[in-house]
From TrEMBL:
<dbReference type="InterPro" id="IPR017926">
    <property type="entry name" value="GATASE"/>
</dbReference>
<protein>
    <recommendedName>
        <fullName>Glutamine amidotransferase domain-containing protein</fullName>
    </recommendedName>
</protein>
<feature type="domain" description="Glutamine amidotransferase">
    <location>
        <begin position="18"/>
        <end position="221"/>
    </location>
</feature>
<dbReference type="Pfam" id="PF00117">
    <property type="entry name" value="GATase"/>
</dbReference>
<dbReference type="GO" id="GO:0005829">
    <property type="term" value="C:cytosol"/>
</dbReference>
<dbReference type="InterPro" id="IPR044992">
    <property type="entry name" value="ChyE-like"/>
</dbReference>
<dbReference type="InterPro" id="IPR029062">
    <property type="entry name" value="Class_I_gatase-like"/>
</dbReference>
Length: 274
């Protein structure tokens, strides 16, 4: 039985009616499988982990408006959970954006402001390290249910080998002021980008923890245009005129196909057997 717990790390009312928990549930949870269960827990509101966390097969740590420097009450229990998952290898874990950063921090890596010191908001090309990326995720790739279709966000069971052989980049949405500046000692770098050297990595002696700085769970219209852009650009004015122009240009060419592809990999990674 596959059971998923999505730990929503953001308590902002801005993410209404669809929040991080809803996004990941839609991406990973299969409503038509009776054996599946998906729990969403807003740790930012509850200030503690759910009692059932140890019974879950897989865990997702979402993005957040907070950063590792905030040192909130629920940070250390979550860091301890990450360390326990790494040590035991009994559960699989995915962390996105803030989740990615907290994983690195909990396991002995380092997190700081972006190297540019500027907020990053755009659709960015992620360069993978193919010989490592597809070694870490071969089981995940094999678990997909049919060839990935960019036309529909449907579950897949198999990725055509030609796709794996030719896939060198992902174009994904990024939105962050901080990033991982040093990997934990037990982590392997899988991908980099212009704004973040440690964009995607796998961690743990069991390689059961996957972390990604970008946001494959985001929908461009809802997440960026309707939620993040008004707050970051219109209100806070955190982008320069040049960065605004670059962001708009990147969004004009964004299709979302790679996000669909990567969400399938996340789902299959979390479901993979040891």
């Amino acid at each position: 039985m596959f059971t998923l717990c999505v730990l929503n790390c953001d308590d902002s009312q801005a993410w209404t009616p669809i929040d991080f928990g809803d996004m990941f549930k839609a991406s990973i949870h299969e409503e038509d499988k009776e054996c599946d269960a998906c729990y969403i827990w807003n740790i930012a509101k509850e200030n503690k982990l759910p009692e059932y966390i140890d019974t879950c097969t897989a865990i997702v740590i979402s993005g957040s408006r907070f950063n590792c420097r905030d040192n909130l009450e629920w940070f250390e229990p979550l860091c301890q959970l990450i360390r326990e998952v790494e040590k035991s290898g009994k559960q699989r874990l995915y962390g996105g954006c803030f989740g990615c950063q907290l994983i690195a921090y909990a396991l002995g890596g380092a997190v700081d402001y972006n190297p540019s010191s500027n907020f990053v908001l755009k659709a960015e090309t992620i360069q993978i390290v193919p010989e490592l990326f597809w070694k870490v995720l071969p089981t995940a790739a094999a678990n997909l249910s049919s060839c990935c279709s960019p036309e529909a966000d449907q579950r897949c069971d198999k990725i055509d080998e030609s796709i794996i052989a030719s896939k060198k980049t992902f174009n994904l949405l990024v939105s962050h002021g901080d990033c991982v500046t040093q990997l934990p000692s037990n982590a392997t770098l899988l991908a980099s980008s212009e704004s973040c050297q440690h964009e995607i990595f796998v961690a743990g002696q069991h390689r059961n923890i996957l972390a990604c700085q970008s946001h494959p769970e985001f929908d461009l219209q809802y997440s960026v245009h309707e939620r993040i852009w008004p707050a970051v650009v219109d209100t806070s004015q955190r982008l320069t005129e040049q960065e605004i122009a670059e962001a708009k240009a990147s969004f004009a060419h964004y299709t979302g196909d790679d996000a669909i592809f990567f969400r399938k990999l996340i789902s299959a990674f979390l479901r993979a057997q040891k």
